[in-house]
TrEMBL record:
Regions annotated as coiled coil: 259-301
Residues in the signal sequence: none
Region (Disordered): 1-20, 213-238, 315-385
Keywords on record: Coiled coil, Repeat
Record Gene3D superfamilies: Histone H3 K4-specific methyltransferase SET7/9 N-terminal domain
Segments of skewed composition (Acidic residues): 1-12, 334-356
Annotated protein name in UniProt: Radial spoke head 1
A Pfam family assignment: MORN
Length: 385
């Protein structure tokens, strides 16, 4: 079952399925949460702005994919980064993902015990890798293209190995068998049916082929049609059975200590280069993720600001329209004096309530002060008598 067949249920909406966890001010799933989707699949992990983003665990519960699960990194609701996928048949993949597909370096464990470890591209074995067969412990190590042996590689048997060219999962072209008896058998693999396809050597495989494109409207009519356009062939065609024809048997070439040291240094250098390239790629992906998240955040803030401004302008316009349409009350003759009188009375009452003395209150206070002064003077004279 391919990665495309095991598609995960969408849960980017606010109320799709059942959800328990954090939300943002927009009520989007944001933070840590757990969701039960309509097809009964479950996801538990990190969300960002309503989408699976960060580390999480997705478990399949449909009949076709029961017991399958993915645990690893997400980005914008897609598997992206490092992750582990356990398939319904029990096989599993551990490695890098890009856009929901195996892409980068990874290791696949098959149910029959076979193991592939190497590079992937768009869900297929592509690049450098090693496939080990559990039944007889043989293995192929070399170049892969779109899931098949393609290019230079080595196939190791129990006591000898083949080193040479491969195509369509077959030994094809020039190569040699290297035996433990310290000898090499050089030769070439041919098609059993030589009329089916002419043998292609390295120069022919690398040759450019012309693109036959129909001229359509809108293209540059001034282009020089005499100069052909070229491209590399997308993938070599499949081939039939092959057979080996030996050319010569030689002694096994043994490298000198200097050559062995040079080979070791070259291997270390290539390994170091691969690690540095992987670190640079991971750093670039992390920076892209941070930049995308920051851009999304600023876009949301800008949208909120513009929305608030539009609402404020709408309220202001609505208020002006209401004020312009409201009738103005004009007091009639004789009503102005009554209104002034009522305001004066209300003002006096409020002054009294607040404790501010009026004319009467001021006289009472003055009389009380004189009486208190006389009593004090009388009290001071009493001891003298």
């Amino acid at each position: 079952m391919s990665d495309e067949d095991l598609g995960e249920e969408e849960d980017t909406g606010q109320w799709i399925g059942e959800y328990e966890g954090d939300r943002n001010e927009k009520l989007e799933r944001h933070g840590i949460g757990k969701a039960i989707l309509p097809n009964k699949d479950t996801y538990e992990g990190s969300y960002m702005y309503g989408k699976r983003d960060g580390y999480g665990v997705y478990r399949f519960h449909t009949k076709a994919a029961r017991n399958a699960r993915y645990q690893g990194e997400y980005y914008q609701a897609r598997k992206q980064g490092m992750g582990k996928f356990i398939y319904p048949d029990g096989s599993r993949y551990e490695g890098q993902w890009v856009n929901d597909l195996k892409d980068g370096s990874g290791k696949y464990y098959y149910t029959n015990g076979d193991v592939y470890e190497g590079e992937w591209s768009k869900g297929l074995r592509h690049g450098k890798g090693r496939y080990t067969y559990a039944a007889d412990k043989t293995f192929y190590e070399g170049s892969w293209r779109k899931g098949k042996w393609e290019g230079f590689g080595e196939f190791h048997f129990c006591n000898y190995k083949y080193v040479g060219r491969f195509r369509d999962n077959k030994m094809y072209g020039y190569g040699k068998f290297v035996f433990d008896t310290r000898c090499e058998l050089h030769g070439q693999y041919f098609l059993d049916d030589k009329d089916a396809l002419v043998l292609m050597d390295l120069a022919t495989e690398a040759a450019l082929v012309r693109i036959d494109e129909d001229k359509k409207g809108g293209e540059d009519e001034t282009a020089d049609d005499t100069e052909p356009q070229y491209r590399m062939p997308p993938s070599p065609p499949p081939i039939g059975p092959t057979h080996f024809e030996a050319s010569q048997l030689t002694r096994l070439y043994v490298m000198t200590p200097e050559e062995e040291e040079e080979a070791r240094l070259v291997e270390q250098l290539n390994s170091l280069r691969e690690k540095v390239e992987a670190q640079i790629k991971a750093k670039q992906e992390a920076e892209m993720r941070r930049a995308d998240a920051e851009a999304a955040r600023w876009a949301r803030l800008e949208a909120e600001r513009v929305t608030e401004e539009i609402l404020a302008e709408a309220e202001e316009i609505h208020g002006e329209e209401e004020h312009a349409g409201k009738p103005v009350d004009v007091p009639k003759e004789g009503e102005e004096e009554a209104i002034d009188k009522e305001e004066a009375e209300a003002g006096g009452g409020s002054d009294a309530e607040e404790g501010e003395p009026g004319p009467v209150g001021s006289s009472a206070v003055l009389e009380g002060s004189e009486t208190a002064l006389q009593e004090a003077e009388g009290g001071e004279e009493a001891p003298a008598e």
